[in-house]
Amino acid sequence: MPRVLIVAYGNPLRCDDGVAWRAADALEAKIPRTEVEIVRLHQLAPEVAETASHFPSVIFIDSAFPEEEQIEPGQIQVEEILPENNSRSDASRFSHELSPQTVIALATKLYDAHLRSYLVTVKGDNFEHGDSLSPVVSAALPSLISRIETLVQALLSPDSPPAHPDKP
Q1: 96: which DSSP letter?
Q2: Which among 94, 106, 95 has a CA at the least distance from the CA of 48?
Q3: Which segments within the chain are labelled E, that is strand?
Q4: How confident is the model at residue 49 (pLDDT cuts 50, 70, 90)?
């Protein structure tokens, strides 16, 4: 069974919002399916928590909207989703659009999952209707793929510390 779940989410028909799907396509050709399972979603829903609970590690890939954070389009951020960051979740409201932190909080609470989880984002520039990436996000795609490959290798390494309920 694969040890890492990659959840690529966004809308591939909204230009840069589809960068995660493009990364997933490239990663699928580079990483053995025996070690990694890749899913593509339009948005995160509560059902993802059950799927995530079957893996020791989860990597979420998404694009960040221009108004989020004070970073430039094309910049990549990798953030570990720590257990203490999961205490404030939007899980109490009924929704079909959740944050990665909420998905992990649900997996922990409902399925007693103890997983290492990361959110990898690339700052988008164009979210209009269309199926092509903006030049700056297209240029960042190889670096995004490389950073995710490096993260996957670290998670698959025997030296990678296992997730623990009290420590990241």
Answers
A1: S
A2: 106
A3: 4-9, 36-41, 57-64, 76-80, 116-123
A4: very high
Q: Which residues contact 67 (CB under 8 A, 6 or more apart)?
A: none
Gap between the Cα atoms of 161 and 168, Å rounded:
9
Q: 71 near 139, Cβ under 8 Å?
A: no
**pLDDT (0 to 100) of residue 159:** 73
Q: Which amino acid is at 6?
A: I
Tokens of 9: 């989410």
Q: If DSSP codes are grouped into helix, strand and coil, which group holds residue 61?
A: strand
pLDDT tens column, 1-17: 789 999 999 999 999 99
Q: Give the chain's domains with CATH numbers.
A: 4-156 (3.40.50.1450)
131 - beta bridge partners? none
Radius of gyration of the chain (CA): 15
Sign of the torsion angle spanned by Cα atoms 87, 58, 152, 119: negative
